[in-house]
Amino acid sequence: MKRPALLFAPLFALWACKPMALSYAPSAGPPAEPSAQQIRQGLHLPDCSQGASVALESAVARCLEKAANAGNQAAAMALGDAYGQALIREAKLGKAGATDLFVRQIHWYRQAVSSGQPIAEMRLARALDYDAGLLMPDEALAYFIRAAHHGSAQAAKIIATAWVGGRVPPENITDFRAWLDSKKEDDPAMAQALAMIDQAPKPELMQH
Q: What does UniProt give as the signal peptide span (predicted)?
């Protein structure tokens, strides 16, 4: 299937163009798991291009796909980011093809979350939870919870905010609330999320 001829986001362009201290080597197997900071800095991305701007149909995208399919989670996340940016542009322009871009974005983010990094889990959750006017999808909630379990205070706050807004059914918050309660003494951010959940009256649940 031909890839959409759309440009990557500027952040991804910086990642792809910058010579990397750690590059992908196909013969060596999947690289060591990168930390969240290393993922943000692009240190584990393959050095695929010297160009300043690349297209999703380019050799750079093929290089990243090869790396991602071999287990490089940072490359998979970069592809998810790129398709996400392309999706935003397509939607703004009212063009067809947004559904295909969304499917591709989710595909690459799913591969990225296998690293167990909160930043990857957050991006997948946010992509799945694309309409704040609806109930939070179960899968999005599950990935927000995973990110919180891996230390993301932002994920915990997002879940609490969704609860206050009536976007999470009571039966879906019980276990997470109990987990927050177990962390409240050691983690102020989790204690704050717990307080948001406990202090808010049971909200009227949004309809599907």
A: 1-21
